[in-house]
Amino acid sequence: MISGGWVGVRQRVGAAGAGPSGSKVFGALGHRWIVEDPRTHGELAELEAQTGVRLPEEYRAFLLHVGAGGAGPAYGLFPVRRVQGRWRWEGDGADLADLSRLAEPSPDQGPDPKLLDELRAQRPEEEDFDDIEDFDDAIEAWDERWEVIMFAPERTAGAIVISHLGCAQREWLIISGSHRGTIWSDCRVDDVDLAPLLDDDGTPVTFARWYTDWLEKAERTALSAP
Asked: Locate the Knr4/Smi1-like domain: which residues (predicted)?
């Protein structure tokens, strides 16, 4: 889906928001069914010059023909805005992305699974401690070791955060590398590694599929009788 595939999407979002059950769609109270104005070709040129990379085509076409962000999956699609002369994405956790590294290929693989399994096995358990303060110290030390591996800056090079699911769970759009244009789930807060969203047949979910799947499901709820 490039530009033609986005025809009518903005209007469909508006109609869903005005539907009798629009408020029942998960996240609607957050994005309020508002879609920000689209970006211009000139604005995207500025953004891409700043970041040193061309955005994936599906997402780029969305910004041009639908909107800069707003109503979308979960609590909404993080909008891209120019603030004090610099472009950035705004939303809960958007600052986790290093915009100076968007041109770097996103890693093909995460940490060694064996290393993660070993570290999980070493996680302190409260019942193993007589003193709660000793447990607190132990779990804090373990968390630091875990975060050094799981939240290393290079893990999310070449990607932006585009949505917040609540409880510190987020989704990323890969901008550069072999996974360019696909959406990844980030549940590291629950000790689960970054992982691509997959269709039922195991195909990686691209931005267009991610957004239109949400819209179709949202329409079924929003346009139904209350």
From this structure: 38-217
| 172 within 8 A of 110, measured Cβ to Cβ | no
For residue 1, pLDDT beyond 70: no
Closest CA to 161 of 153, 169, 170, 152: 170
Beta strands 86-89 and 159-166, pairing class:
unpaired
Angle made by CA atoms 81, 86, 92, in degrees to the nearest 5: 50
**Could you give the CA distance from residue 133 to residue 116 in angstroms, rounded to a whole number?**
26
Q: What is the pTM of this model?
A: 0.93
Among residues 170, 163, 177, which one has the least CA distance to residue 69?
Answer: 163
The Cα-based distances of 165 to 27, 172, 194 in angstroms read 8, 11, 14
Spacing of C-alpha 56 from chain mean position: 14
